[in-house]
Write a structure and sequence with these properties.
alpha+beta, three-stranded antiparallel β-sheet, 5 helices, about 35% helix, elongated
Length: about 130
């Protein structure tokens, strides 16, 4: 799916996926909307029409479409999986939750050289 979604972004095209299981469709939905910023539509159903012999004739189709602002993610799921397999990352979210990280905040409207007490006083509205 990853390479197909990348092709949709790079070639400004669309792609159809037939009869995905609910878990695969849930994964695709998250990947399409949150990571690639593409558009998606699912229509049809496996249970559209039943014949007397209990076979299904309908097909569920999921179409993924290019849209303005879509992008290929900076890090792909396949790369994350490789990092986990090599031991550089953990798949356990609890293990990484308490790790220390560093961040910088840029606050406009606060004069340079202000002390911590002055900053707290200026930011009380937040």
């Amino acid at each position: 799916m990853e390479s197909q979604l990348t092709d949709v972004v790079l070639h400004k095209s669309s792609r159809s996926f037939l009869n995905l299981t609910s878990s695969k469709r849930a994964f695709l939905t998250r990947y399409v909307f949150e990571h690639f910023k593409l558009d998606m539509c699912t229509y049809g159903s496996k249970l559209l029409a039943k014949s007397t012999s209990n076979t299904t004739n309908g097909k569920a189709v999921t179409d993924v479409f290019w849209k303005e602002g879509c992008r290929v993610p900076e890090i792909l799921v396949s790369e994350v999986i490789k990092l986990i397999e090599k031991g550089f990352m953990s798949s356990n979210h609890e293990a990484t939750r308490n790790k220390i990280f560093e961040a910088s905040l840029v606050i406009t409207g606060v004069p340079k050289g202000s002390g911590l007490d002055e900053i707290k006083r200026l930011l009380t509205a937040f």
